[in-house]
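Supplementary Methods S3. Input chains for the assembly prediction are listed below.
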Amino acid sequence: MEKWYRQPPHQGDIGISTRVRLARNVKQFPFKEKISSSGQIQLNQMVKSALKRMDLGHNKFGFIELQELSELERIALLEQNLVSRTFLTKPENRMLVLSEDHSVSIMVNEEDHIRIQVLRSGMDLEGAYQLCNKIDDILSETLDFAFDDTLGYLTVSPTNLGTGLRASVLLHLPALERIQIIPQLMKTVSRMGLVIRGSYGEETGVIGSAYQIANQVTLGLSEQMEISNLQNIVRQVMESERGARADILNNIEVIDEICRSYGILKYARMITSKEAYAHLSNVRLGVSERILEEVSLETLNQLLNSVGEATLSVRANQHLNARERDLDRARLIRDLI
Amino acid sequence: MEKWYRQPPHQGDIGISTRVRLARNVKQFPFKEKISSSGQIQLNQMVKSALKRMDLGHNKFGFIELQELSELERIALLEQNLVSRTFLTKPENRMLVLSEDHSVSIMVNEEDHIRIQVLRSGMDLEGAYQLCNKIDDILSETLDFAFDDTLGYLTVSPTNLGTGLRASVLLHLPALERIQIIPQLMKTVSRMGLVIRGSYGEETGVIGSAYQIANQVTLGLSEQMEISNLQNIVRQVMESERGARADILNNIEVIDEICRSYGILKYARMITSKEAYAHLSNVRLGVSERILEEVSLETLNQLLNSVGEATLSVRANQHLNARERDLDRARLIRDLI
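Predicted structure tokens for the full assembly:
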């Protein structure tokens, strides 16, 4: 089954991917470290039973005991944004529910008892939220979630209290970045209770002009309101980006850069992840704006999700050193582009 | 008719082109500036008559009054090594005889009365010399060349006295350059009465790892001996280059560089001549060593002879500025590669 990022993206000219996640805790178990091992195992079993009854169409759930994965496989999951870093710190008794296409990942016994995540190709907050909500409904049929009439859903971190919902859209903003108005945009957006941050690794800063816009407020709003607030801002940012693109693409230097990036990706024999992300970003701009016809956005999405360090090693079925990764990464890109 | 540089090159893995030139003066006319205008016109006529009887096969001579060309056309001739800089300083009464394929160019009323030049694709000293010699023979049937029994042919510059022959081979030496033994090679070769210098513009230094090996001594040797001396050294340099290539091509970094250069040339939308020559050099190495199959040496030779500033302007039929040339150059390369 094809992975979620191979699906035709909604508004893929700018939207790279959408993520919606709900944090839930179950009344009958203590929160956080206080839950016993047997409680954790029981919780895993309850989630499994509940989800087995769910109809995902052609898609299917897999149930993965985290401690049965190799170190490398775990890091690859993190690299592909399927689990949190917290989830990996203590693998014991933790379960990951992963749909075959990787669009749904449910961490059980993370910081919160349950974290439901749905990923979508492109900008598709509605679609991602609806599926997340559906899973939430199915689970609450058999699980009694901790809920307070004033506060809403109870979570370990107070920043999640209320809806427990975190929604974000990863946007490709090369033009806004080039005309240097991202810092200003960040200020504006934060005044609206949202946040923009550069994506692909918090340590490494912005890679490939990809920026994540996410909600910050989970208290005092309905899930649907949070989603539609975020959606409104995202749409405005996308419109600004489209305008800025129209300007910068009058510039033959920009076109030249885009086309060279394609040539380099198509022929390089070794490439670092940093360089690859930069060229993939240029090529994505070229494809979105119909300057390059040779490659699809789906393929670019696939590459973004395939050229990470651990993911390459898992694919090669062995631990690769930096040089081997650079060779493999270049080969994979050549093969797909 | 295809230009000489589109011919399959002899030993084209390293040999780019071969040039043989003979300087001759005619007894009945004073040398250099002392020849009168009417003398010059008479000389042009005599050369024209002599050559009209020569059979060049499918090739044909054209007879060009230098002063009838535009400034740009003249510089383009220089750029393509068909005339000397000296020849262009005073266009009056100067005639260029140019074969349709540009392999033969004869300057009449240059510093010397007559300079016969033959260009060949690849390393082909014998072929170039034989044709030069044949033209010399034809001309000497009707023209009485200034000749001294002790000194040989008399020329304006003492450095040409004797045979009046200057032969050179343009070699592509990226591997010897990379392992940094060219300076040492220059010393060795100069002790043998030859010279190596970086080619494509004396002002700009070595471009595209192209080096010219030429004879220096014209006195006291026969033409044939000069040619075979040069040929021996050239063969040894070619062997060294082949050995060095075998070494450096074990290096994936070098392969990567070659392939990236191809990708850049294939997709860039604007490119300076300096950058173009550098990438063309990498690609030539790749093609010679069968790393790249996508392009022929003939096409690379054509590009080397087409991407110069004046040549691009003549081709566009207007004076192009730097930016326009960079665009045109990239387009030409994309079209051919």
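Residues 252-336 of chain A form one domain. Chain A has a mean pLDDT of 93.
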